[in-house]
Amino acid sequence: MKSVLPILTVLGVIVAVWYGAAVWLNAPWERDQAARAGTELSVAQLLPLTMAQDRPVLPAPHQVVAGLWEGVTGQAVTSRRSLVYHGWVTLSGTLLGFVIGTGLGVLLAVGILHNKAMDLSVMPWAIASQMIPIIAIAPMLAVVMNALGASAMVTKAIISAYLSFFPVVVGMVKGLRSPDAMQLDLLKTYSAPASRVFWSLRLPSSMPYLFASLKVGIAAALVGAIVGELNQPAGLGARLLSGSYYGQTVQIWSALFAAAAMAAVLVGVVGRIEAMTLRRMGMAR
Q1: 73-123 pLDDT, tens per residue?
Q2: DSSP codes joined into one string, 3-37
């Protein structure tokens, strides 16, 4: 109960501020309509009107909840109007990109660890690659991938992998270098080969760092998938874009909350796998 109370308190403050902002931002349209009709609205009349607009500037929390419910349960999951359908499209691209990005990140980290030239050359380029805004590079990647005949799923996965590989590289390199000199000297006294040092010492030591990076990487992969869907017909990114085209702010916020819930679930799954793995390795804290 002690841990839940602060969360509920913060949630209550956010909802209260949200309702206040909805009234503030939606009220001018209602006042304008009343002025056109030659009437004047009292506060009691204005408040419910600002929270029931079809296309509000800022939808009230209950409108977003209703939009989410309608998007999830209001039609068949195979319908293009279903958030489940669009969520699955986004999730599949996210997972594929995350797997590619994680594999690439781990391979680069191992190469950086064992090769001085890669350490000096690859890491600066990896850092520089993240300085390019994804919203700028995504259209270029889409053009190149389309020219190569790649499917929409692969294009989206490449963009996700682009964002997710970097935290894995950084975390894995730090983890592989985390064993102290005394541990490395001990294995050296046993004449352990480099492969034995890697599998018996460096790799196990890197697990906490790897899982911390994976939590960041899976969230970054989701962002990449959503950005990659901005020029595609399906997915939460496409849902966001179509909502902005037609002024459907409830649709936009519903898709945003669906994406946030998906990110929370994905990070939670990685955290669960982390706890199980570290407990099995005797490294649970």
Answers
A1: 888 888 888 899 999 999 999 999 999 999 999 999 999 998 888 888 888
A2: THHHHHHHHHHHHHHHHHHHHHHHHHHHHHHHHHT
